[in-house]
Amino acid sequence: MLPATEEKNLKMFAARIRLETLKELKSMGFGHVGGCMSIVETIAVLYGSIMKIDPQCPGWKDRDWLVLSKGHAGPTLYATLALKGYFPMEELKTLNRPYTNLPSHCDRNKTPGVDMTTGSLGQGISAAIGIALGNRLDGRDSFTYLVLGDGECDEGQVWEGALFAAHHKVDNLIAFIDYNKQQLDGYTKDILDLGNLADKFSCFGWHANEVNGHCVKEIFYAIKEAKKVTGAPSVIVLHTEKGKGCSFAEGILNNHHMNFTEQQIDEAINNVQRFLEKQTL
User: Mean pLDDT of successive 10-residue segments in the chain (281 residues)?
Assistant: First the structure.
């Protein structure tokens, strides 16, 4: 069960992640706004309730692992890691600056808490499968969580990995697909129609589920269900909105990587701050 107090805490954590991500992006004046916003609730549930981690020892061998294959959403992960205490909040201001530990795309050699270097789309699933298999061979009671973009699923490597993981019964692997229906240059249905992703993965031998990707309760229960599955990897298709919670990015097409004015980003930040203030009254 997810108690009402914990559900509220996860919603608050998601709002804080969204707020700090927007502040990061403000420091640059541009960035991957859309895809950063659409995965906030999933990252909040993973780091706020599900994952076995130790911020004081990021390399703890018995931890759960996260592979953010859609590495352009790194700012969302950085905000989360800072809020969990992996590094000082002040470092978020250095996003993508010279000599930063927070590059635009995730780099495991630079950022404490980042488990895999990503951004070359399609490759994260291979890394996640390898990590999960390695932990299984070592007898570790760890899960590997993988976050894929929907546009990323145009890559053949994703489907090769899907076949491999099912064949080898990698049941300590749980994947999420950020199905926001948009990618860099248009709608996914117009570029390469993905259709019903849950059905596709199910046919490949995965345990598949679909949820509202902005509902922490649905995400939480889907993960709990997936963790009980034996003999097959699991995928959770997240029906999301690209740019969710960012006033100037919601509901528009060209929000993958975008410029914005100071007025626009300040309005978005203020909206999230007002939400947080209401929750604490």
Answer: 94 98 91 94 99 97 98 97 98 93 93 95 97 98 98 97 99 98 93 97 99 98 99 99 92 87 94 90 58
Measured distance CA(165)–CA(130) in Å, rounded: 9
CATH architecture of 4-279: 3-Layer(aba) Sandwich (3.40)
Kind of pairing, strands 186-187 and 65-68? unpaired
Sign of CA dihedral 245, 221, 78, 105: negative
Any idea where the domains of the chain sit in the sequence? 4-279
Helices marked H in 73-172: 74-83, 124-137, 156-167
Distance from the Cα of residue 111 to its chain's centroid:
16
Q: Which residues contact 203 (CB under 8 A, 6 or more apart)?
A: none
* Residue 128 token pair: 């996640």
pTM, 2 dp: 0.96
Q: Which of 47, 39, 42 is nearest to 243 (CA)?
A: 39
SS3 call for 183: strand
| CA-closest candidate to residue 76, choices 48, 116, 98, 105 | 105
SS3 annotation, 163-207: HHHHHCCCCCEEEEEEECCEECCEEHHHHCCCCCHHHHHHHCCCE
What does the alpha-carbon distance between residue 252 and residue 34 come to, in Å, rounded to a whole number?
9
> How many angstroms separate the CA atoms of 18 and 12, rounded?
10
Count of beta carbons in the 10 Å neighbourhood of residue 184: 15
Task: Give the burial class of 109: count Cβ atoms within 10 A of its Cβ; 0-12 exposed, 13-18 middle, 19 or more buried.
Answer: exposed
Radius of gyration of the chain (CA): 18
Q: How far apart are CA 79 and CA 102, in angstroms?
A: 10
